[in-house]
Amino acid sequence: MKKLNFYVMADNHYFSKKLWVEGNAIECRSHTDQVILKEAPEINEAFFKVIENDSDADTVVLIGDLINVGEKICHDEFTERLRKLQKNGKRVFVLTATHDYNGCGEDENTFVAVGYAEDSTYKVPCTRRAELDEIYRPFGRDKADSEYNMSYSVNVNGYRFILLNDDGNGHTDCGLDDEGNKWLENELIKAKKNNEPVLLFAHHPVITPYPLYEAAAPTEMYGRHHILKEMLLKYGVRVVFTGHVHTHAIRKISDEKNDLYDIGTSSVVSPMGKIRRITLENGFADIKTVDLPEKIDGIPGGSKQVAESCFGGYYRRLIDTAVRDYDEFVKLGCGLIPADKAKKYRFIIKPAIKALSSINMSFAGRLGKKYSGLKSSECKLHKEEKLIDVLFVILDHFFPGDAPYTPDTYEYKVIRGALLRGDRIMKLFRIRLSKYFNGIDSLWTLAEPLVHNTRTGCDREIKIKLIDEVTYEKD
Ligand SMILES: [Fe+2]
Ligand SMILES: [Fe+2]
């Protein structure tokens, strides 16, 4: 097997500049999104340039949600850019996913392709699922050795890349059906015979990034992932690359013989978007993270401006203005809180946010002292630290991964103590969380992976042994 360097990009969510003008409509839409819409072309371009400038890597795999929601013009512009990548010597392998098509108002997929005028939206030409095969066939599927329903299998420098299409409609299970699983099993058997290490790619997570995700949104997982996991462990497949969650997270499951890793990659257009660079060599996959470059053409404040423009940065501004400048809060909250409701409930919202903002970590520590084992003297030292700031630090790590507080930190102990106390109160009042969260009855069990990395300990990088026996071949 030859050495191979390649990139994985997830959830590019490209959105054409031709589909919006500055105004209330695009602002309100942006506030409800966890990804960056307006600057999506510049951010995508910055990453494409990183890949083009890397002369040691000639391959890139894009694992779905390529564009915003099925807008035809977005596919036109995005495929134009992929063609340029190919011209510049890169092999491109693409999966499409749920955001890449819409039913044009006629089927189950609820996405509607729209443009944004100053104060309103208007319908624009959209893309049906059946059109995607033709649009994206030149980006990978045309080189496939074998295909099943837009899933495909391809030999890349002696490695077997298998890309599973799981573009469900968002309401029901997605992924391979029974016939598809037979096709996959056959591909795995062939790969084993031919001594090809297998790398799998899908859009939806195969292993949940944290228990809360699967418990709250089972149809947002790869459909029937239990069957897939069993098959991958059986045939010794060690790695599957996934996206969709927009979080950077590496997780692992094992049986008696094998380990399987799900390498979740952040959305390209997350507030702190990232891609992965992988080196396959000597039977190992060395998986690293590439961050959004600091300087980005067309965005004066670069990656810092991107990080502050949505999600955590936006919520920080929202909380701050609720206390300081309520009229600004009403404006800034558009898309999230209707202006008339924000004005009507000012007498509740403003004092509630003010009270929440003033809670310090000393007070929060005393709440769960009985369960955290913290001493009063230790709690007293944290009067200056605000609970809201700690919550924002946790939120800031939600998409980039590596939750911030290890078990030895004061913040971890405080949150653990308070949530264990919450568990106790729920038990007293016979409140069953498991009714809503698929068998999980503890607030702390749900929250811990967001506070501390309980997965593999590092979401940025990992080196994984792909096969036990290595056959070397000269370049
Ligand atoms: Fe996505
Ligand atoms: Fe998705």
Main attributes of the structure:
alpha/beta; binds fe (ii) ion; globular; 475 residues
Report on the architecture of this protein:
There is one protein chain. With 475 residues, the chain is an alpha/beta fold. The chain folds into three domains: 305 residues, Metallo-dependent phosphatases (Purple Acid Phosphatase, chain A, domain 2, 4-Layer Sandwich), CATH 3.60.21.10; 47 residues, no CATH class; 89 residues, no CATH class. A seven-stranded mixed sheet has the order 6-7-8-9-10-12-11, covered by helices on one side. The mean pLDDT is 92. Bound molecules: fe (ii) ion (2 copies). The site of one fe (ii) ion has 6 residues, from loops.
Count of individual beta strands? 15
Strand content: 15-25%
Return the CATH architecture of the largest domain. Answer: 4-Layer Sandwich
Number of helices: 18
Low-confidence stretches: none
**How many structural domains?**
3
Which structural category do the helix and sheet elements fall into?
Answer: alpha/beta
**Strands ordered across the widest β-sheet:** 6-7-8-9-10-12-11
Report the major sheet.
7 strands, mixed
CATH top-level class of the largest domain? Alpha Beta
First-to-last CA distance: 8 Å
Question: Any chance you could write out the topology, listing elements then pairs?
Answer:
Blueprint: E1 4-9, H1 24-31, H2 40-52, E2 59-63, H3 72-87, E3 91-95, E4 114-116, E5 121-123, H4 129-136, E6 146-148, E7 151-156, E8 159-163, H5 178-193, E9 198-201, H6 211-216, H7 225-234, E10 239-242, E11 249-254, E12 259-264, E13 274-281, E14 284-291, H8 302-309, H9 312-324, H10 326-332, H11 339-344, H12 346-358, H13 361-367, H14 369-372, H15 376-380, H16 387-396, H17 410-428, H18 443-451, E15 462-465
Parallel strand pairs: 1-2, 2-3, 8-9, 9-10, 10-12
Antiparallel strand pairs: 1-13, 4-5, 6-7, 7-8, 11-12, 13-14, 14-15
The structure holds fe (ii) ion (FE2) (2 copies).
